[in-house]
Amino acid sequence: MNWQKLSDYKYLSLYRGSLIRFAASHPFEEEVVMIICDSPRGDSRLGMITLTGKKAGYNCFTWFPEWAINMNGSITAGLIYKNWASWVWPEWSPDSAWILPEGLSIDDLQ
């Protein structure tokens, strides 16, 4: 896996399946991985759902505003960084965040 620091790749487009790993706290573990996902409403809106720990798969953690989604169905890493406090969590720093734009391959799980 080739994790990249979120703050260093602000112009990178993140699509469904991209991962974001960051330092967290209650109600999550000390570190959490989330995955960019589609809205279950099918309205071309993206969000993030928890992939690791006790909260894995439990509802969508956040939905990104419709205006933030690019025409190609992606969201720019810099928008997530800039809006971290309102979209993710104000007490967690975006400077602790790492991204895996290409998501996981099956080999990463073996």
Report on the structure:
With 110 residues, this protein is mainly β. It has two helices and eight strands, in the order βββββββααβ. It has one domain. The protein has helices at 77-82, 84-87, and strands spanning 4-5, 13-14, 19-23, 31-38, 46-50, 60-63, 75-76, 98-100. The chain has a six-stranded antiparallel β-sheet, with no helix packed on it. It starts with a strand and ends in a 10-residue tail after the last strand.
Helicity range: under 10%
The parts where pLDDT drops under 50 for at least 5 residues are none
The number of E-state strands comes to 8
Domain tally: 1
Q: Could you spell the SSE succession in H and E letters? A: EEEEEEEHHE
Number of helices: 2
Shape descriptor reads globular
Largest sheet geometry: 6 strands, antiparallel
